[in-house]
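Hi P.,

Sorry for the delay on this. The queue was packed all week, but I finally got your sequence through. Input first:
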Amino acid sequence: MLNLERLRTLDALARHGSVSGAADGLHVTTSAVSQQMAKLEREVGQPLLAKNGRGIRLTDAGRLLADHAARIISQVELAQADVEARRGCAVGELRIGAFPTAMRGLLPRALAGLRVEHPRLRPMVREREPAESMAAVVRGDLDLALAIDWHNKRMPVPAELTRTHLLDDSADIAVPSGHPLAGRAEVSLAELRDEDWISWNEGQFCHEWLVHTLRGAGIEPRIAHIAEEHHTQLAFVEAGLGVCVTPRLGRGPVPAGVRLLPVSGTVRRHVYAVWRTDADRRPSVRAAVEALRGAAAGL
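Then the structure:
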């Protein structure tokens, strides 16, 4: 009889491509991954892993069993969802991934509501970028994720996931208080043609959106500095080192030397929740989505 936890380990190896990646995804040590795989190889009576330079690769037998493992795990999750739905109450652990501004501006209120309405539910939150969170939901590492896209650049959602819109989040342009446009009621992107920009990390969806948006306005972006956190970007703006886009969700205090300017035509993000479609019947997922909707409606 094949052991389900060992199949989960093989599935994680296939998805992550390394022992360390599988260990991170499963929240165990690399030694535990190696031990589980050694036991699985003894169970099936043939090697499932082979050395590949400094790393490892799946053998033909390993790939074959990993394909079966993915289907078995999906069926187990569906069975768990059916059992939980029949029980009719939200209990147990629920793993949630969220991007930083949602962690500050949306999740605390939603989690507080869940604690009151569903005291036996144990949400566990991890801060992750939207694309990373969605991939983790597809893999089964997370149960639910908060993600974003922008009004003019949508983020593709994998076919295995269901999503629901939570709120639209407007964004402003942050400029130094001594900037010539600082006294304006609003500003157009065209008026920022000659500015230095403080952006997110290269490769992140929001960085790609900024470049896409500025070029769409006929501006070749001049990215002067990269900072992941919004409060860091605002510190650079206050120092006169450039301008940045700052969403309103989870914004927090704005430095005294920064002015926020609405953008004519409005720049906004769409915030939504995603989960595996085969988990749609889980009361814990439905309860979390409803709590998020309630928190979003109160903003």
